[in-house]
Specification:
seven-stranded mixed β-sheet; 6 helices; 11 strands; binds S-adenosylmethionine
């Protein structure tokens, strides 16, 4: 297992295999992001290539970065299966250090993962890697709903592990199951800690079990907007992922955000 220093994410080992062989490629997220991307593009937190591989297949010049080398290994072989060889970097968002500059940097399901200290610096690194006039595009989940009663009273954590998840078939005939649980929530540092547990079954028998931790940052919209502005972004837009309209209090949960690095005068 190879990982980026200090980022606590659970996308290793069997979890990476689950993303590659169960979650797969394409789908609605890919379609939504595709319309917002101009090449050359960088997919940060590209994972096993759910978005990157179909984009590259469609002829988009796209590179990938991810904190987890395990996810990138799957991404590289998923791309290679289609004869594609994008550049890949084992780098977390806040550690981005790539020579190339991009017209679009996009993140799907990634901003905030790893820990709260990285979000502001991560947005700044993204800014540095955009060409003037280039755009940062990402989705973001607001901390609303049942899971966040912990803002008003101490939550009863850690949760018990749920019952075993459904066993999903893998291409080699084995099966994999996955469950996760919330372990801790700290309203001061705005962090949630969770765990994932995966089980691999071969010939119907449990052959491997792995558990990984994940730290997620709770970031509010006004905080995000301030971080984007501080980094130098302009033309910041934010819509509700579902309605495609401006976000509504109590309704909106997933946001789609774009921010532009100013063009040269
Ligand atoms: C939820 S998965 C999404 C993968 C892919 N974007 C997709 O939509 O299928 C999040 C990915 O972000 C990576 N990741 C987590 N924290 C990160 C960070 N701070 N910087 C870069 N990548 C990170 C994980 O290793 C994982 O591959």
């Amino acid at each position: 297992m190879s990982e980026s220093a200090s980022v606590t994410t659970w996308h290793y080992g069997l979890c990476a295999r689950y993303w590659s062989e169960v979650v797969g490629e394409g789908g609605e997220d890919a379609e939504r992001f595709r319309d917002l991307i101009e090449a050359p593009a960088l997919d940060v937190g590209c994972g096993t290539g759910r978005l990157l591989v179909p984009f590259a297949q469609a002829g988009v010049d796209v590179d990938g970065a991810d904190a987890s080398a395990d996810m990138l290994d799957y991404c590289r072989s998923n791309a290679a299966r289609h004869g594609l060889t994008p550049a890949f970097y084992v780098q977390a968002l806040h550690e981005l250090d790539i020579e190339r500059r991009y017209r679009t940097i996009y993140l799907c399901g990634t901003l905030g993962l790893g820990g709260p200290a990285f979000v502001g610096p991560g947005i700044e690194r993204a800014y540095e890697h955009l060409t003037p006039g280039g755009r940062l595009v990402f989705d973001h989940y607001l901390p609303v709903g049942r899971d966040f009663r912990g803002w008003i009273e101490p939550p009863n954590l850690p949760q018990a592990w749920p019952e075993e998840g459904p066993r999903e078939p893998l291409p080699d005939g084995s099966e994999i199951s996955m469950v996760s649980r919330r372990v801790a929530f700290d309203p001061l540092t705005q962090e949630t800690m969770s765990e994932i547990r995966l089980r691999l079954y071969e010939n119907g028998e449990l052959s491997l079990e792995e558990t990984y931790p994940l730290t997620n940052s709770i970031v509010f919209w006004l905080e995000l907007e301030r971080m984007l502005t501080t980094a130098g972004f302009v033309d910041i837009t934010c819509i509700d992922w579902e309605t495609r309209e401006p976000p509504e209090p109590w309704q909106s949960r997933r946001l789609l955000i774009t921010a532009t690095r100013p063009a040269l005068p």
